[in-house]
Each structure stands twice: as structure tokens, then as C-alpha cells.
Amino acid sequence: MSDSNQNKDNLTSTTNIQSKEIRVVIVDDSELSRREITKALEKEKITVVGEASNATEAMTLLASCKAHIVIVDVVMPDISGIELIRKIHENFPKIIPIVISSLGHQHIILEAISAGASDFLQKPFSKQILVNSIFKIASQIEEE
Questions:
Q1: Which residues pair with 121 in a beta bridge?
Q2: For residue 41, which of 46, 67, 110, 141 is within the disulfide window of CB 3.0 to 4.6 Å?
Q3: What pLDDT is stored for residue 90 in this prediction?
């Protein structure tokens, strides 16, 4: 396949992903963080279907909405984001988690990935890096 044909295929694939609705839940105890992430995602036509400030709220929300992706902070007031990802993986196996944290220690990253996280972004991260991660993961979304 020529480079130009391959580039057209890549562009078509990206366009198809971007035209598919991507539904996201944000779980972070910081209201400011949730608001900024929501604003960045909505600019890219990514639908934020809910926000939660702790794991209990998150599990209730995930049971009632049809999210594809959940963005989870590691440090939260009730249980850790890593433990939440394990619960999400067990109860909602089709939802794809992305972990965000200001704690970038290698053991936390490995623990998040082994718990089922699809990606790990260290705070502060650019909004574009988050959007790119979501679009990359979107190809794994299973339609209902």
C-alpha cells in the first residue's frame, strides 16, 4: 500500500472514531479538575455523561448511565482510584478506564494498568493528550 493510501486509511479511521459518540464519566474529588476536563472534552464533541467526586457516587452513576470510558483520579476520599478501577472492571467490564494522577511513581502506574486501566496520565497533562488518549481508546468501544 502506498504512503498516500495508508494516510487516507488512517484519516478515515480517525474520522470514523470522531464521528462515533464517545460517552465519558469523570471521577475526581476536585470539582475544578472535573470542570476543566469536561470543558476540554466537550470542545472535542466528546459527551460527558456524568461526574462523581468519589467511588460510591461513581459506581451509582456507572450503573445508571451508558458510559464507554471512565476517567479516574488515583487519590480520592473513600477508596483509591486503583481499587475503584478493580470494581469497575468487575462490575462493568465494557467500560474502559483511564487513570489520572499527580502521583507518577512507577509502582502506581503498574498497579493501575494491572487493575485494568487502559492509560495513565500524570497531572498536570495537556488537554490534547487526554483527548488523544480517548480517541485512541475509542476504537476499543463495544457498541450496545
A1: 100
A2: 46
A3: 95
The strand order across the sheet containing 69-73 reads 47-52, 23-27, 69-73, 96-101, 119-122
Distance CA 92, CA 90 (A): 6
Q: How many domains does the chain have?
A: 1
Q: Which residues in the chain show pLDDT less than 50?
A: 1-17
In the numeric block, which cell numbers belong to residue 18? Answer: 470522531
Q: Which domain holds residue 76?
A: 21-138
Q: Determine contact, residues 82/61, Cβ cutoff 8 Å.
A: no
- Dist CA 103 CA 75 (whole Å): 9
pTM for this model (two decimals):
0.83
Residue 84, phi then psi, degrees to nearest 5: -60, -40
Neighbour-count burial of 10, counting CB atoms closer than 10 A to its CB (0-12 exposed, 13-18 middle, 19+ buried): exposed
pLDDT of the residue at 143: 58
CA angle, residues 45, 51, 57, in degrees to nearest 5: 150
What CATH number is given to the structural domain containing 41? 3.40.50.2300
DSSP 142: P
